Input
Amino acid sequence: MNKSTLKYLLFSAVITCFANTAKGQQAPNMSNISGNFEINSQYYIKDSLIDAPEVPEKVLSNGFMNLNFDYGNFKAGIRYESYLNVLQGFDPNYKGSGITYRYASFTNDGITITAGNFYDQFGSGLIFRSYEERALGVDNAMDGLHVRYTPIKGMTLKGFIAEQRNYFSKGPGIVRGFDGDLQLNDLLPGWEAKKLRIGLGGSFVSKYQKDDSPSRILPENVGAYAGRTTIAYGSVSFDAEYAYKINDPSIVNKFIYKNGEALLMNLSYAKKGMGAKVSAKRIDNMNYRSDRGATGNSLSINYLPAINKQLTYRLSTLYPFATQPNGEMGISGEFYYNFKSGTPLGGKYGTMISLSGSAISDIQRGPVSNDTLGYTSDFFSIGENRYYQDATVEINKKLSKKDKLILTYIYQVYDKDVIEGKIGEPQVTAHIGVIDYTHKFNSKHSVRTELQHLMTDEDKKNWAMALVEYSYAPHWTIAVFDEWNYGNKDEHHRFHYYNASLAYNKGATRISLAYARQRAGLLCVGGVCRFVPASNGFNVTITSRF
Output
């Protein structure tokens, strides 16, 4: 028995001991055991027409189970994961099975101490965010010690020292961090009832990695700091965060020694029936990882959020934006208004209209005498290259007690060269229209229909998509749809991408069966993406919680 296996067995034994103790208590409501389970398996069929490769195993599978135990101020948990072998589109380093997450924490007198794995975020994540996004294969869980302390109301202090998860092992770096948050209305006497609310925060994070380069002198300790504020008055709120990182040569930035910085600002207004938000962002050389040789979604210390609208309709996801850590500058805005029922535009049931748009470009770059610094960049100058642009108009209208209609128009400009790394590909300009109609027959039966169309002169030209989804509440959902690349300039590549699914829900359990012919492309969540290859086959997904 190796040391790793022994360690996990001992950890499991401690949890079991506490669980058995809790069962014998006179007040069983003080203890709780909870968890969740998921398995996603796919049978692959070779489809040379859409470049879906043959899979030797035929069946690939991703699965996990979480088990958490709470007893008073004590919490502990483990997660077991299994990839036999990992589904296509996920990093092949996810291979095998084992316990990948385990923790124990205790809270007393305002302080919480966690030993083992943990997730956390400082501010908006510009210099530190540890999180899991299973759809993207992202899990940069920390493994070490974490402390959270609230000495007085309105003040929160956090600190940690840890390594990062790297698939079934750990990255070579050590990450240290400290964060402080102050809510002035809770701290200052007489400010509790003030309409003006102010919050201040600051963070510092440092990563250590040994310099093992034979040809370069690389910094072993790379620090980053950030300051933030939140100001709210009535219906108006403003938040901003600025981050700065010392030179951090890596494979992602081609080993330049330029310092990095980032700025994120949001201004919003909201009242009943109306709201607006404007966001601005600037990123310059802010790739930050605990391993300077890591790429893709592995070992990222920070998170650089996207400010463009997160589009969800099927054809609108053909051209999603991926955050560019080496440099981007953008602005976005969103506005919605609810025309009340009884007004000319509201009709009998009211009408919601929303408008949104974003424009994201490269930063301005100038030459430097010392090539190791990479480039110079004026903070307020916008680069010439437009990476992404979109504009969306959505009308959400309830036609009757049984009928609801959503009409959407989306305009997109997309740089495949930069976002997908496809050098020489033309910039894509796309127009997308969506009709989303739902009819409820009664409280149990409903049908939803989607008709979508994408028009572009570049890439694979025009697409059409049709979906019908029938729901029998609360248990059954059946859906079929077809994406058709009818406008492809090569008539032999005007493929249909069929999908049919059946889902059954009972309580906290969901079982889904599907057949899908999947087109290749990017899957993005909040500006973080993974490439999904073309595939053909059957899928089974089971999720449950307890």
